[in-house]
Design a protein that fits this description.
By secondary structure, the protein is of the alpha/beta class. It is globular.
């Protein structure tokens, strides 16, 4: 990783024991490098420290009609157990319900009392066993001693599979450098892509967005800002958190549909027939019953680009379990590293931003664009795969940055009217020929579109 980003700005601004800045700059630089490859114009897409830092805190900086976004739900966060700490996630009502059921708790006080009667691992197993979301706060060595901890670090940051069965990988790129490729056969000088609008190189690309929460929606938000036609589909039984939707749905269309009905299955197949990219962000296997497994999609459409991301990756005992950025931090040793004294004792801590989510999101966008570049050269697509747990391992592998943290200039805010009220927001973390990228449209009303391309 180079010492400074493209603009010569500060390389360290959050401080802390891990090089979160290096992860953030590397992830955004990977997306920029993929775009430069796709456009056939080296150096056209770049980033800066200021843009990257703001984009990784987009939800914290967003204002909806003047108000801040709702943070973690009351039952989410660190809680004491009989022998240590556990991280709970209960932002979604169905996850809170499963958490309470697992602990036999009717009130927040009951949750606290139940956890104090259990070890961290007992509580973790009970909550996860009912489909709730929690992870014991482990040390780094404790995580690496588990089967899941060992599986999480295997393979490249972004693994790629082609229709012919060949495998490749993408790693974090250095700011201003090209893609870090292994096993991917891309001609060194792809034909330039002459978009009508150079700032919208993906204007002819259709993206089916089957993602939720932060990482996947961040990926498709960037693709939409680059001109792609993005249609996001959510299940009606489990709507997205409203504030989270607003933060990540700039430039998209939004549909709400049960994909299990025959009519919606028919419409889904029509969408897939004309899609260029499918991005899936559910736990492993959750969408297989709808025919949305990457292997099945590529078998029927070898020219399709499929990117999947989840919490724990494709291998290991937790590979099909639910998870979130904060829970991965707890399990992988990050929360322990960021712990500090609190009220006369010790308490786990967290990264300064939800960097695993955002870095994975920009990595997913990079995978989609790189595979589109491959398709333009070969006529074939491919499948990219990422996970929050693998991104955590990427962060842990970066050398410690011992530079003194510098103060960044304040974010450059933009405003945009929307159906939710006036939005104050920060732009995507990319420059095109030195000019900042921006979103084309505000987030749409939730579920306002049908299951069809516009």
């Amino acid at each position: 990783m180079s010492r400074y980003p493209d603009d010569g700005g500060p390389r360290r601004w959050w401080a802390g024991p891990l090089d979160v800045e290096g992860l953030a700059l590397g992830a955004v630089s990977t997306a920029a490098a993929a775009l430069n490859l796709y456009a056939g114009s080296p150096g056209r897409f770049t980033t800066t420290s200021q843009l990257t830092a703001a984009a990784f805190d987009s939800s914290g900086l967003l204002r909806i009609a003047g108000r801040k976004l709702q943070g973690f739900a009351p039952l989410s966060g660190f809680r004491r157990t009989q022998d240590g700490w556990i991280r709970l996630h209960a932002n979604y009502p169905h996850h809170e319900k499963r958490l309470r059921q697992a602990l036999g708790a009717g009130s927040p006080e009951d949750v606290e009392a139940a956890l104090l009667e259990m070890t961290s691992l007992e509580a973790e197993a009970a909550i996860q066993g009912l489909g709730g979301i929690a992870a014991a706060v482990r040390t780094r060595s404790g995580w690496l001693a588990t089967g899941m901890g060992q599986a999480a670090g295997s393979g490249p940051w972004i693994s790629v599979t082609f229709p012919d069965g060949q495998h490749a990988g993408l790693g974090l790129s250095k700011p201003g450098a090209g893609l870090e490729l292994t096993g991917m056969d891309i001609p060194p000088a792809p034909a330039p892509h002459h978009a009508t609008d150079p700032a919208r190189p993906l204007a002819d690309v259709r993206v089916l967005d089957l993602t939720r929460v932060i990482a996947g929606p961040v990926a498709t938000r960037l693709l939409g800002a680059l001109g792609a036609k993005v249609l996001r589909i959510d299940p009606p039984a489990m709507p997205e958190l409203p504030d989270q939707f607003v933060d990540t749905c700039f430039g998209k269309r939004s549909a709400e549909a049960d994909l299990g009905t025959p009519e919606n299955q028919r419409r889904l197949q029509q969408l897939l027939a004309d899609a260029d990219v499918v991005v899936s962000g559910y736990r492993r296997g959750a969408l297989d019953r709808f025919g949305l497994h990457a292997g099945a999609l590529l078998a029927s459409r070898p020219d399709l680009v499929v990117v999947t991301l989840d919490s724990w990756g494709g291998a290991g005992p937790w590979s099909a379990r639910r998870g979130f950025d904060s829970v991965v931090q707890a399990a992988s040793g990050i929360a322990y590293l960021y712990g500090k004294g609190h009220d006369g004792g010790w308490r786990p801590g967290a990264l300064p931003v939800q960097a695993l989510d955002h870095a994975t999101g920009y990595g997913a966008a990079a995978a989609a664009v790189a595979l589109l570049a491959v398709r333009r050269q070969t006529g074939l697509g491919g499948a990219g795969r990422l996970s929050l747990a693998r991104t955590a391992e990427e962060l842990m592998s970066l050398p410690q940055n011992l530079e003194e943290a510098a103060e960044l200039p304040g974010p450059e805010y933009r405003t945009m009217p929307s159906s939710f009220g006036e939005l104050r927001y920060v732009r995507p973390p990319l420059l095109i020929d030195g000019h900042p990228l921006d979103y084309r449209n505000p987030p749409p009303p939730y579920g306002s579109s049908g299951l069809a391309w516009a």
